[in-house]
């Protein structure tokens, strides 16, 4: 490698290795509503009956990552920083806040066996708890490509509306959690079997063609449903799936320049000095301003309007379900968390679509603007692949759910009127009540929540569009630098024999073949 390709490789290699070393386990969060028995089940699984706190208040629950360790202790992390460490026996004394992550190091053979397979179990805060940071913590694991397990109390008989909404959100991120029905000692076996079959039916309706649904019971130590699922996970394959694409991009970047160098050195190019000067001038221009003049690019204002309209449509589509929860007098916090799940998933999907559209349109404009450089073959194919755009949304998740975002708007416009609304509807038929509440959801929730979200969405869109422009600017400069490196190498050939040049070109072609083989093996 030479010049820009070497610099780029060294930077990408360091980032890749740091990411791989920093997260070399597959995390398997165990989620469910509060009181589903997650902590009790894990205490039985680890063969340490009193290890994890049970019956904790929602306000203090955090994520507990279970690691093997001879020196048993627990470390509390907040925003990635270690803030407290205690002996494992004192785990309940941690001064936790929602959103914290506790690293639990325990001397447990089952945990050691999982860790040797590359799997870390995580005891998660409850779904729909109403504690804002809990959903943020859960989302943190969603974005790490984890494999989720949902624990459902047999007393529920099925997946509740709020849980189904959460599962539907996960399905939009291509995640299909396993479901374990807990506390089966409280139901006859025939009833439990019916519950399992009905949950499978519910999951298939969400698009999971082959759902994993089984049973567990902490009371009688029935753990087969959990252990069988964990045994089915291939952590190595999951790491390859997660990191393989990134490694292929690094290899592609090297192959791309090798091919450019082979092509440049294999043909006659007149006025090499002039070509190099032309590229240098264009690099200066691109660094100053990305070359584009395209009226078809969406403004931040238009993209924001489009996203909010899709959010509104998503809420309206679910308005009957939300209304039914209100009529059934579900807990207000569960209703709020359900709406957040609907809005959050729609915001992320809409942002993805808007980003892809913006990138494509901007790419066309850039390609048109650099057409005059066609004689030196500046390839702008990099524009076609911007999957990492999605990662840019992660810092904004908390903005979407904090007191000034979705949570605050729902609390202000929807929850206060619920008691009066249901009293006002006294004496009407069930159908009339449901429709009246549905209309309230549409007009108060859908309209006002999207209005409240507008400043946050605009901020995300504007900053993301600028990030895309900057990224494209950097990539285009990198492409041109590689062209310049190839032209300079071509100039040096003047002082070499044809045999030496042919040997070097042959060596480059051999390297390309080897890299292609490595890429295909991933």
Which structural category do the helix and sheet elements fall into? Answer: alpha/beta
Q: Determine the strand fraction and express it as a percent band.
A: 5-15%
What is the residue-mean pLDDT, rounded to a whole number? 82
Order of helices and strands: HEHEEEEHEHEHEHEHHHHHHHHHHH
Which value, in Å, is the CA radius of gyration? 28 Å
Outline type: globular
In terms of per-residue confidence, which ranges show pLDDT below 50 for 5 or more consecutive residues? 374-387
Give the % helix: 55-70%
The count of domains is 2
Q: Give, in spatial order, the strands making up the sheet with the most strands.
A: 4-3-5-2-6-1-7-8-9
Distance between the termini: 22 Å
Beta strands, count: 9
Query: Can you summarize the main beta sheet?
Result: 9 strands, mixed
**Number of helical elements:** 17
């Amino acid at each position: 490698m030479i010049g820009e390709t070497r610099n780029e490789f060294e930077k990408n290699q360091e980032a890749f290795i740091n990411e791989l070393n920093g997260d070399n386990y597959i995390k398997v969060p165990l989620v469910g509503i509060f009181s589903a028995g997650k902590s009790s089940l894990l205490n039985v699984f680890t063969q340490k009956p009193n290890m994890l706190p049970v019956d904790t208040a929602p306000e203090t629950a955090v994520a507990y990552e279970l690691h093997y360790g001879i020196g048993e202790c627990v470390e509390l992390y907040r925003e990635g920083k270690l803030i407290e460490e205690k002996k494992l026996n004192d785990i309940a004394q941690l001064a936790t806040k929602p959103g914290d992550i506790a690293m639990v190091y325990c001397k447990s053979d089952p945990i050691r066996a999982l860790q040797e397979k590359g799997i870390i179990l995580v005891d998660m805060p409850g779904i729909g708890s109403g504690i804002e940071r809990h959903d943020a913590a859960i989302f943190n694991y969603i974005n790490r490509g984890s494999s989720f397990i949902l624990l459902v109390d047999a007393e529920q008989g099925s997946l509740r509306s709020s849980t189904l909404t959460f599962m539907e959100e996960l399905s939009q991120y291509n995640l299909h959690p396993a479901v374990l029905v807990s506390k089966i000692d409280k139901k006859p076996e025939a009833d439990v079997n019916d519950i399992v079959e009905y949950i499978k039916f519910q999951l298939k309706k969400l698009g999971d063609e082959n759902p994993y649904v089984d049973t567990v019971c902490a009371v009688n130590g029935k753990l087969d449903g959990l252990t069988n699922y964990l045994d089915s996970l291939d952590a190595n394959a999951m790491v390859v799936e997660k990191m393989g694409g990134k490694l292929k991009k690094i290899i592609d970047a090297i192959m791309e320049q090798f091919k450019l160098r082979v092509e440049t050195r294999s043909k006659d190019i007149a006025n090499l000095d002039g070509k190099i000067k032309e590229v240098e001038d264009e690099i200066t221009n691109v660094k100053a301003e990305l070359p584009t003049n395209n009226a078809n690019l969406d403004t931040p204002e238009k993209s924001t309007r489009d996203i909010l309209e899709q959010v509104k449509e998503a809420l309206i589509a679910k308005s009957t379900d939300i209304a039914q929860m209100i009529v059934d007098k579900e807990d207000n916090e569960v209703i709020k968390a359900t709406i957040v799940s609907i809005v959050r998933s729609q915001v992320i999907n809409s942002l993805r679509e808007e980003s892809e559209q913006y990138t494509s349109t901007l790419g066309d404009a850039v390609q048109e603007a650099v057409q005059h450089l066609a004689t030196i073959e500046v390839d702008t194919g990099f524009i076609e692949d911007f999957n990492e755009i999605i990662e840019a949304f992660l810092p904004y998740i908390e903005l979407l759910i904090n007191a000034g975002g979705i949570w605050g708007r729902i609390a202000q416009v929807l929850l206060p009127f619920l008691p009066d609304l249901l009293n006002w509807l006294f004496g009407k038929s069930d159908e009339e009540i449901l429709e009246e509440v549905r209309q309230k959801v549409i007009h108060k929730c859908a309209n006002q929540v999207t209005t409240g979200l507008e400043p946050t969405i605009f901020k995300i869109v504007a900053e993301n569009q600028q990030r895309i422009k900057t990224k494209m600017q950097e990539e285009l400069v990198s492409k041109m630098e590689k062209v310049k490196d190839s032209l300079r190498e071509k100039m040096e050939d003047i002082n070499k024999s044809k045999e030496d040049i042919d040997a070097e070109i042959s060596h480059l072609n051999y390297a390309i073949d080897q890299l292609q083989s490595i890429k295909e093996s991933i």
